[in-house]
Amino acid sequence: MPTMPTLVLVGHGMVGQRFLEALAERGLTDTHRVVVLCEEPRPAYDRVRLTSYFSGRTPDELSLTDAEFIARHGIELHLGDPAEHVDRATRTVTARSGLQVTYDTLVLATGSYPFVPPVPGKDATGCFVYRTIEDLLAIEEYAKEHATTGAVVGGGLLGLEAAGALRGLGLDTHVVEFAPRLMPVQVDEGGGAALLRTITGLGLSVHTGVGTQEIVADGEGGAVRAMKLSDGSELATDLVVFSAGVRPRDQLARDMGLTVGERGGITVDERCRTSDPAVYAIGECAQAVDGRVYGLVAPGYEMAQTVAAALASENGEFTGADLSTKLKLLGVDVASFGDAHGAADGCLDVVYSDSRSGTYKKLVVGPEGELLGGILVGDADAYATLRALTGSVPPVAPEQLVLPAGAGAPVALGPEALPGDAVICSCHNVTKDAVQAHATLPEVKKCTKAGTGCGSCVKLIGRLLPQNGETGLCGCFPHTRAELYEIVRVKRIASYADLLDAHGRDGARGGEGCEVCKPAVGSIIASLAPTIGADGHVLDGEQAALQDTNDHFLANLQKNGSYSVVPRIPGGEVTPEKLIVIGEVARDFGLYTKITGGQRIDLFGARVEQLPLIWARLVGAGFESGHAYGKALRTVKSCVGQTWCRYGVQDSVRMAIGLELRYRGLRAPHKLKSAVSGCGRECAEAQSKDFGVIATANGWNLYVGGNGGATPRHADLLAQDLSDAELVRLIDRFLMFYIRTADRLERTASWLERIEGGLGHVRDVVVHDSLGLGDELEALMADHVAHYRDEWADTLDAPERLERFVSFVNAPDAPDPLVRFVPERDQIKPDLPLLSIGSRPLEGSVTS
Questions:
Q1: Which of 44, 163, 317, 318 registers the highest number of CB atoms within 10 A of its CB?
Q2: Does pTM surpass 0.90?
Q3: Residue 55: how many CB atoms within 10 A of its CB?
Q4: Are 214 and 380 in contact (CB under 8 A)?
Q5: Is the separation of the CB atoms in 128 and 241 below 8 Å?
Q6: CA 779 to CA 785: how far, in whole Å?
Q7: Buried-state track 270-279, b at ≥16 Cβ within 10 A, e below 16
Q8: Can you name the residues that pair with 176 across neighbouring β-strands?
Q9: What residues are paired with 362 via a beta bridge?
Q10: Sequence-ordered alpha helix ranges (H) in 92-182
C-alpha cells in the first residue's frame, strides 16, 4: 500500500474545525493522514458565543467538536502543543513538545491575537485580554476576589462583549473607546448614538473620544487601581480588559519566510495558497487577494471550504466576503450589512430613528432603487431578509422597510419576497433554494450547516420551513398540534424525545427539536399527565427544557429582569389574615403591590433568588401558585353576587371559587380567563372571557369564546338556565375539547372562529354529545382535578429544583446588580431610562 500524503493543520479554532469538516465531507480524511497542532488545551469551541459562558453555558457546551468525530476520521489531534518551527526545505513541522511531522500540505489557521496598546502599566496585575476560555476563567477568578469595578479598553464588538461579561460578574463597568462612537466599524453616528443611549441606560459608563494613557498600579508589578485617560481624567478601576481589536497571528509565517502584508496577514491567492504552493492560510491570519484581513467567522469558513475544494481538485475561489453581521450586545440587537456606511457613488439614505425606544434603522439605496446595505440597532428582526435582498430592488418602497408596525409599514416581508439564489446563511453561504431542498430545521443544519454559525438566520430558515403547503406543527413534526395531542393520548407517550423519535420527520428524529414544538408538546404532556402517566414536575428533567421562558422560574419576567409573584386568590375572595401575610411579604422583600383586573394581588420586583423565600412564606400561609406565568387558567373573576348585592340572583362568589379551584393548573394551548356574574348587570364582565357564567333566576347561562386584548371578541351563548352540575359538566367538556383540537397559542376566541362548523359544531359536541366524546372529555378533566398539585409547593419540597433559582450559575450567591429600583408613590418602580409618560416630545422620525 502506498503511504498516504500527510496534511498538517496548525491551529484548531472555529475555522480549523470547519476545515476538518470540509475535508471529511469530501472523503479526504480517508486519503490523507491529518495531523492537527493546537495551542489551546481544548479542541475548537464557539468563540462567537464566548460571553455566554457568563450566563451559564459551560465550556463543553461551547465545544464545536467531539472525540467521536476526531476518532471516526482518524485525525491526530495534539492539544496544548502548538507548531513552533517549520522547515520548508524538508517540509517538517516541529511542535513545542518536540514532535516532528513531515507534511505534503501545510494549512495555517493560527487566527489572531488581541491587540494591547503599548501604554505604561499594561502588564500590571489585574490586566487581561478577552479572547479564549482560559482568559474568561482568569477574569472570573480575579473578579471574585479582587474587583468591584472593571474597565474595558475598546468599544467595538469584542469590547462590548467583554463589558457584558464584567457586568455579568457584578462589576460596575466602564467602556473606554478612542473613536467618537461605539462600534465605529459597524455603525454610523446615528446607530452609535442609539446604542450608547441603550447601553448607558443599562447602567454601564461609556467614555468615547478618549484614549487610555496609562494603567496606574500600586507600585511596580502591583495591582491595578486606576486608568489615566487622554482628556486628563482618571478612572478608578480594579480590573482592566484590553479588547481594542485583534492582529493576525502571522509570526510563524514570517519565520518561515512567507510573504505577509504590509499591515500583517499572510498573503494568499484566490485558492488561499501562500507564496509557498505547499502552504495554505485560512481565517484571521490570512490576507485575501483584495488586501483585506477578515475578522469574522463566515469568511474564514469560506476560506476553509476553498482549500478543501482545492485539495479535492474541485473548483472554488475566495476573492472577498460579505462583512454583514448581526449580534446581541448587552441585550441590544445590532446588525450591519452590505454598504452600511454608504460609500457607493450616488447612494441615498433612508433613516428611521426613535431615541425613546433605542431603535435606529438606516438603509442605503442606490440610484436605481437597489438596496445596497444598512444598519439596524435595537430592532434587527428584518436583518436576514434585508441582507438577502441586498443588491436587488425591494418589492416595497424602502421607507416601508424601516417604519415600525402601525406607522405606515406593510406586513413584514415574508420569505416569498426573496429570490431562490438569495443567501440565507452567510456563515456557510447557503441559499434559499438550498434551504428549501430540506424539510426540517435539523435536516437543514445537518446537510447545509445553515444556522450553525452565528445563528442570525435561524428565524428566517424557520419561516421557510415546512414547505409544500404542509400543515405540520413545525419543521420537526408533520402533524398538527391536535394530531399530536391524539398521538400522545392514545399511545400514552410521556416524553418529548420519544414523541420526536417515533413521530417526527426523518431529519428531526434524534435531534433537539425547536422553539415551536417543544413548549407545545410540553403543554400537551402536562394537560394529559394523569392519563398518560407523566407525573413529573414541570421543572424536572426533560419537562424543564420544554417550558416557555416564564415557566422556567414559575414567575413572570418583568422588563428590568425582576419577577412578579402572583398567589392564587380564588374568586377574588381573601381573608384579612391572608391579606396581612401578603402585606408582610411585600414589605419584607420591598415589593411593589398592585391589585389586578383579575381580582388578584401582584407582587412585583422580586429577584430570581428571592422567589423560593417569598413562596415559602406564601405557601406556609395557605396560598398557592396563581399560574400567571403559564399557559393555563389565570382567574375566575366574580362580583359579590346575591350574598351581598340586592340585585344578585345566584351566589356568584361560591361558583367562581369552585370553578377556579377545579380548573387551576390546567395547561392549555393559551391562557384561560373566566368570570361569574351574579345577575344580568354583568359586573364581572363574563362575556369577555374564554368561558363566562351569568346567573339567571333559573340557574346559569354559559358563554364561551370571548376575550379582550388587541382583538376583542364578545362571547357566544353556549347553553342557558343550567344547574350547578350541568354547568360544570359542560365547562369540563368545552375546555377539554378546546385543549384537544386547538392550535398552539390559539385562544378560545380564535379557535371558535376557525374550527369547522364554528359555535354550532362546538355546541353539538359539548352540549348534545354528537361525537360521543362527552364521557371521555369529562374523564380527562376528572383526572386533572384528582391529580392536581401546587407547582410551587412541590418545588419548595425538592432541593434539586431550587438550585435553578440563582441570578448567575457561576456565582449563586450574587444578586443581579442590574435589577434596580427607584421610589414612586411610596413604592418602587424599575430604574429604567425614559419610563415616564410625556417626559419628552416624540423623537421618532423618518428621513430619506
A1: 163
A2: no
A3: 13
A4: no
A5: yes
A6: 10
A7: ebbbbebeeb
A8: 153, 207
A9: 351, 375
A10: 133-146, 157-168
What residue type is 59 in one-letter code? P
Scan for cell 369529562, then name that residue.
778
Asked if 29 contacts 73 with a C-beta cutoff of 8 angstroms, the reply is: yes
CB contact set of 552 (below 8 Å; sequence gap of 6+): 539, 544, 804
Element (H, E) at 193: helix 189-201
**Which grid cell sits at 433?**
433554494
CB 787 within 8 A of CB 535: yes
The pairing of beta strand 33-37 with beta strand 76-78: parallel
Q: Is 772 left (phi over 0), alpha (psi -120 to 50) or beta?
A: left
CA dist., res. 814 & res. 561, Å (int)? 14
Q: Give one word for 262, left, alpha or beta, with left for phi > 0 and alpha for psi -120 to 50.
A: alpha
Contact, 303 vs 275, CB < 8 A? no
The bridge status of strand 266-267 relative to strand 205-208 is unpaired
Q: C-alpha grid cell for residue 613?
A: 423565600
**Sign of the CA dihedral with 599 first, then 603, 609, and 610 last:** negative
Angstrom distance (rounded) from CA 446 to CA 449: 6
Any residues with CB less than 8 A from the CB of 750 and at least 6 apart, and which?
Answer: none
Rounded to an integer, what distance in angstroms lies between the CA atom of residue 157 and that of residue 159? 6
Which DSSP helix (H) or strand (E) runs through 481? helix 481-491
CA distances from 85 to 95, 101, 107, 746 (A): 7, 11, 14, 64
Look at residues 668, 677, 667 and name the one whose alpha carbon lies nearest to residue 636.
677
Lowest mean pLDDT among 137-146, 398-407, 620-629: 398-407
Maximum CA extent, the chain? 104
Give the three-class secondary structure for 643. helix
In the structure grid, which three cell numbers stand for residue 338, read together?
452590505
CA distance 611 to 624: 13
Nearest one of 586, 571, 595, 596 to 617, comparing CA atoms? 586
Determine the Cα–Cα distance for residues 150 and 152; give it in Å rounded to an integer. Answer: 7
Compute the half-sphere exposure of residue 779: CA atoms within 13 Å on the CB side of its CA.
8
509 three-class SS: coil
Confidence of residue 415 (pLDDT cuts 50, 70, 90): low
| pLDDT > 50? residue 697 | yes
